[in-house]
Amino acid sequence: MKNLPLQQILWSIALAFLVVSVVGQWGGGATEVIPYSRYRQLLDAGQIAKVVVSGDQLRGDFKEKQPDGNTAFVTQRVPPDVAEALSAKGVEFSATPGSGTLGTVIGWILPPLLFVGIWIGASRLMSGGKGGAGGMFGGGLLSVGRSKAKLVAETAVKVSFEDVAGVDEAKEELHEIVEFLRTPDQFGRLGAHIPRGILLVGPPGTGKTLLARAVAGEAAVPFFSTTGAEFVEMFVGVGAARVRDLFEQAREKAPCIIFIDELDALGRARGATPMGGQDEKEQTLNQLLAEMDGFDRSVAIVILAATNRPEILDPALLRAGRFDRQVLVDRPEKKGRVQILKVHLKKLKLAADIDYDAIAAMTPGFTGADLANLANEAAVRATRRGAEAIAMEDFAGSVERIVAGLEKRSRVLIPRERRIVAYHEMGHALVAMAIPGADPVQKVSIIPRGIAALGYTMQQPTEDRFLMGADELRTRMAVLMGGRAAETLIGPDVSTGAADDLARATDIARGMVARFGMNTTLGPVAWDTEPGRFLDQPGTFWRPRGYSEATAREIDDAVRILLNEALERALSILRTNRAKLDEGAESLLAHEVLTGEELPRPTPEAV
Q: Is residue 126 part of a domain?
């Protein structure tokens, strides 16, 4: 707790004494302090209406208002023997209360102290619990405009580039920032200047915040960390005040780094809101734009920001001179996943059979955060089974747990439904195994998992893919339709189990027609031109339409044709391998889980 300034304490005590004095005078009203001898005279004369005795003090009221306007009196009692002796001689006498009594302490010392305590408590409460460090009038409601950014000292940031793996290109890009903060004079030797702002772009969990902290740790400079949401409040002008305060603090601490996480909460494009007018977010953004454009380039302040939605940011925020560079922090490829696994597993007790390449191959599309979660899940799984070290089976089981969900062995299916699920999953597996070039099948299970999955077929890609051709997309649709095709073969009535498969296949088909120009009838036209989210999940192809009803009908017909072709392809493969389908389904019903090696080998599709 920070102490109040001395000047504020002295003013508080003086004000408290003044209040006590005024209250004391006011509390007495029209009260006259009279000598005890005069009190006896007035009593003998019958001019006293009422008396209240409190110890040696007498308080009372006159029967009639006195010439000086007083209606009440107070006096101090004198011992009777002394009073009689003095009265006999005609001497005026009075008494005063003794000094150093408890009443004096309570009446004059305690109220000011209590007043000061209340003052300090109110100051702390109104300034957000941070005391009165802002001065006599700096706390209270005025402190709402102070930045909420957390300042981390240069010696407190222990993260370095060695703690960040799988994003080598991003680290190289940010290495220049570190060199500039360490030796700013070197960059100015030839007239160059460091980029004013760097925007880290990528999906959630890829290590954008960790990279920013690594830059601060490598450069050994103060690090201001905040989020875009912390600038926005219900009070108008608060966000802009916090932006100004943040940059003022940064100038005092330069060289330093300002890191704004979730920039899209603050930097959304202006005018995008349905309500007209200038809202609070726009005022805050305007102040940020002004600060980034206004601070001196010679001041070593680097602004790092992170977002996973750069497409909604205001163009003025991304222009040259503000966020000059955009650094992509994408999901790591297989080599990057191996590097990340080595970072997260180095503190764990591993068995001798651990193969980093095999674990990386099982986790396509995993981010750094996903891999950290995988390492923890594997450690928990090994601990639960009482093992001395974490084995490969723990990682394999953890991948299933993360991808497919928790096993629900308590969810008991009736025999008919269990049979349908077995044929459904075996249909996926056999179609995938029969089509050359499809991802290999790793495992098939009919154990319910997660919220709605009654079974699953796990395929493991042999390599990371960044482009896909039309044939590969058709293959994916055929594999997805394998479950519906198997259900069609075993009975005339199909179930709702293929709902998710149909949705994913439809998504792929619509993408082929409307985005990728892979339909010969509609031609090489991108009918879906609406901007979408950056770095969409694989398979998320659909967008709101921006074309006529006639074109929409043609697109729907083309999508339907693609899906029917995929279903017919899957049906053809399963009819050819009907005996293998029955054999695999019966084996799956008996064992519940089959690995890729245990599955029957179908006849390959004729090319």
A: no
Q: Characterize the bridge pairing of strands 441-445 and 593-595.
A: antiparallel
Contact predicate 382/394, CB 8 Å: yes
Whether residues 541 and 464 share a domain: the answer is yes
Collapsing DSSP to helix, strand or coil, 177 comes out as: helix
Token pair 């009038």 in the structure block, residue: 137
> How does pLDDT run across 233-244, given as a tens digit for each residue?
666 677 788 888
Angle separating helix axes 578-591 and 549-576, nearest 10 degrees = 80
| Half-sphere exposure for 58 (CA within 13 Å, toward CB) | 22
Active site residues: 425
Does the predicted model carry a pTM greater than 0.90? no
Query: Residue 57 pairs with which residues in a beta bridge?
Result: 54, 76
In a domain, 213, yes or no: yes
Give the number of C-alpha atoms closer than 13 A to the C-alpha of residue 485, restricted to the C-beta side: 30
Cis peptide before 67 (omega within 30 of 0): no
In a domain, 604, yes or no: no
Top-confidence residue, 528 or 496:
496
Domain that holds residue 578: 415-598
Tens digit of pLDDT for each residue in 46-56?
Answer: 787 777 777 67
Distance CA 430, CA 59 (A): 106
- 266, exposed or middle or buried, with CB in 10 Å at 0-12, 13-18, 19+? buried
Q: How far apart are CA 230 and CA 346, in angstroms?
A: 36
Domain boundary among 328, 361, 386: 328
Q: Which CATH number does the domain housing residue 231 bear?
A: 3.40.50.300
Compute the distance between CA of residue 358 and CA of residue 354 in angstroms, rounded to an integer: 8
Give yes or no: residues 370 and 499 share one domain: no
CATH label of the domain that carries residue 512: 1.20.58.760
pLDDT per position as a tens digit, 341-351: 998 898 899 99
